[in-house]
Structure formats: C-alpha cells, structure tokens
Design goal:
Elements lengths: L9 E6 L3 H13 L4 E6 L2 H10 L4 E4 L9 H10 L5 E5 L4 H9 L4 E4 L5 H42 L1 E7 L5 E3 L1 H6 L11 H7 L5 H13 L4 E9 L3 E14 L4 E10 L1 H14 L1
Parallel strand pairs: 1-2, 1-3, 3-4, 4-5
Antiparallel strand pairs: 6-7, 6-10, 8-9, 9-10
Helix pairs in contact: 1-5
Length: about 280
C-alpha cells in the first residue's frame, strides 16, 4: 500500500514486451510528476515471478505479450495476484474487452496512443486510491465479522438473545440464542408474538401481554420477569425487556429488545432462601 511519506516512491511494475512503448509509458508517468519506482518485465511469467519476491503497489499490464495474449492475460494475472490493483494498457481498441477487463478486476483500461501524461497520471492515482479504499473496506468487514462472532458468543454465554418485532404484522426476528432459550435450533421457525405467547406460563400471560402493549405506547425501556414452559413441562424464568424504535430513513416503527434466561439465578435465590429459613 502506498506510504504517506513524501519521499516514498510508489513501486510500479510495467509488464510490456515492447521496449519503445515501455519507454513512452514510463516517460508519460514522469511527465505527470508522479513519484514512482519503475520496474519492467517482458513476459507475464517474469512479471508474476517478480511479484512473488518484490513489493509492488500497482501493475501496468499489456494484454498481448510474448507468452500470453488477450483476455487470458487478465485471467492468468488475477489468478496469481488477486489482490493487486492493475491497469490494462493495450493496442487493442475494443470496448467489449475493456468492459470485460474492468469486470475482471482491472482498475482502468487505456488504449496506447490515446492517452497523455495527465490521463495516465490520473488513472494511476485513482487506481491506487480505489485500491486503498477497497482494502480498508475489506479490513473493516473482517473486523465487523470478528466483533459479530464475539457478540454472539457473549450472548450464548450469558443466555441472552436479542429480538425485534414489527408492530403491524407482529412478526419477530430472534437472535440465535433466543431460539435456544425456547429449546429450538436457530432459525427453526418464523417467530411471531403469538408464537412467543404460546410458551408463556398461563399465570404470566396477562402480565406479558400488558408488557408488549406498554412498549408500543411508550418510548421508555420496559422490563419484565416471567416464566415459560418448554415442552409443556420444564419451567424457565426469563427477563424480557424492550422499547419502541423509530428509523427515520424508512419511517419504520418497531420494537427492539432482548430476553435472558435467568433460571439458574432464580434457583440459586430459592436455594439461598431455603437455607436461610
């Protein structure tokens, strides 16, 4: 990746078998005032071998080389150097090949003799910037995925599951741990408020109904402890909480919250009470 140091010279590899055309291209880069460290190979094989041993920020790739020609040059390059930005520079004035090149991963497609130093310099700068942005997006995506996995693991350890509910349809979305609390594998069915109420202990149904009614009426966080019956016999104690949520872009109003299995805590409290008595 390009360094921000003003003394840094961007290493660029030009894969071009024609010495005169290579001299013209490198001369245009110098004319554009671009600070770069030039490298050149005549064949694709030599270029790929060079990349294995040296750091390069950008490749200028000719389509028709001594050992490769046409679109095969691009596919062979991307297979061996999938994350390295490259610009196709060729004599082939073919719009279809140009579009295919960009779709295959090329940052740009330039026709020899049809660009000057400004066009080449701009293409190189934009390519490096796009590559840098893409790398940051990929790093952010990886970090978010790691954070998501840690969050899911934390929910599982705490027996906590997040949920949200559409106020119109009463359809709910449950996190994986919410399904497990109710004794199901994640995604085993499509949860709704009616489905939720089926598991609520008959003595607690009125309180749970009132709980959801209060959430829909107030923006304040609501909280309730109640029991559920698993397979009609096993009793579990839950803490459920939620609040009204409003999303401005879509003008969407829905409920968000979470449930936590506190059965073990309730049993511990009961054992402590019996011991004290």
């Amino acid at each position: 990746m390009t360094c921000m140091n003003s003394k840094y010279r961007t290493p660029i590899l030009l894969i071009e078998d024609n010495a005169e055309e290579a001299e013209v291209i490198l001369g245009l880069l110098e004319e554009a005032g671009f600070k770069f460290e030039p490298h050149r190979t005549e064949t694709l094989y030599e270029g790929l071998a060079f990349l294995q041993k040296n750091q390069v920020d950008l490749v200028l790739l000719d389509l028709n080389l001594l050992d490769s020609a046409g679109f095969k040059t691009i596919t062979s390059f991307t297979e061996r150097a999938p994350n390295l930005p490259f610009i196709v520079i060729t004599n082939t004035n073919n719009e279809i090949i140009g579009n295919q090149a960009v779709k295959a991963g090329a940052q740009d497609f330039l026709i020899k003799g049809q660009f000057d130093s400004k066009v080449l310099g701009r293409a190189v700068r934009y390519s490096l910037q796009r590559s840098k942005t893409q790398q940051k997006l990929e790093e952010t995506t990886k970090e978010l995925e790691i954070t998501r996995k840690r969050f899911l693991e934390a929910q599982e350890m705490a027996h906590f599951g997040a949920w949200e509910m559409d106020l119109v349809s009463n359809e709910m979305k449950w996190a994986d741990e919410a399904f497990r609390i109710f004794g199901y594998q994640p995604g085993n069915f499509l949860p709704t408020l009616s489905e939720y109420m089926k598991y609520v202990h008959f003595e607690d149904k009125a309180a749970v109904e009132t709980f959801f009614e209060n959430i829909a009426k107030s923006s304040k966080l609501q909280k309730l402890e109640h029991r559920i019956l698993i397979e009609g016999a096993s009793v579990r104690h839950l803490t459920v909480f939620g609040k009204l949520q409003f999303e401005e872009p879509e003008n969407k109003i829905f409920l968000v919250g979470g449930i936590q299995d506190i059965t073990e805590r309730k049993l511990s409290e009961r054992l402590m009470l019996e011991k004290n008595i």
